[in-house]
Amino acid sequence: MTKQVIQTDKAPNAIGPYSQAVVAPAGSTVYLSGQIGLDPATGDLISEQVEEQVRQAFSNMSAVIHAAGGSLHSIVKLTLFLTDLSHFGIANNVMSELIPEPFPARSTVEVSALPKGALFEVEATIVV
């Protein structure tokens, strides 16, 4: 899939690994449910550490994307949920390592709580 990145100087530049907007070619749009850092084998959080939860959540998301017939290149929109925005830098760094350019559009939100006491959750929209 080829994505077209939308960039305008009339809005603030992206301040991380994301694009202002992304146009995806015609295809099937898949809306993924949020993934937290659960170990698929046990159903328990992989760790109490933020970075390990972020990495596992992205790994879980990747598995669902592949099951839907896509790849990480198929992502057009991500939403990140953090229980503490002071962990934003960790999530941003992991995302920049794992998600290929051109980066998808992204929103990041601080929430009061996540299922199972998770510290991070990611949801995605892909086009395959």
Q: How would you portray this structure in words?
A:
- This protein has 128 residues and is of the alpha+beta class.
- It has a single domain (4-127), classed as RutC-like (60s Ribosomal Protein L30, Chain: A), CATH 3.30.1330.40.
- The chain is built from two helices and seven strands.
- The chain has helices spanning 50-67, 88-98, and strands at 4-6, 21-23, 29-31, 35-36, 75-82, 105-110, 120-127.
- Strands 3, 4, 5, 6 and 7 form a five-stranded mixed sheet that branches. It has a two-stranded antiparallel sheet with strand order 1-2.
- Helix 1 runs parallel beside helix 2 (88-98).
- The longest helix is centred in the middle third of the chain and has 18 residues, at 50-67.
- It is globular, with a radius of gyration of 14 Å.
- The N and C termini lie close together (7 Å).
Distance between the termini: 7 Å
Indicate the CATH class: Alpha Beta
CATH architecture: 2-Layer Sandwich
Q: Share of helix among residues?
A: 10-25%
Major β-sheet annotation: 5 strands, mixed
Strand content: 25-35%
* Tally of individual domains: 1
Q: Give the topology string: H per helix, E per strand.
A: EEEEHEHEE
Assign the CATH topology: 60s Ribosomal Protein L30, Chain: A
Shape: globular
**In total, how many beta strands?**
7
Count every helix, treating DSSP H or I runs of 4 or more residues as helices.
2
Class from helix and strand fractions: alpha+beta
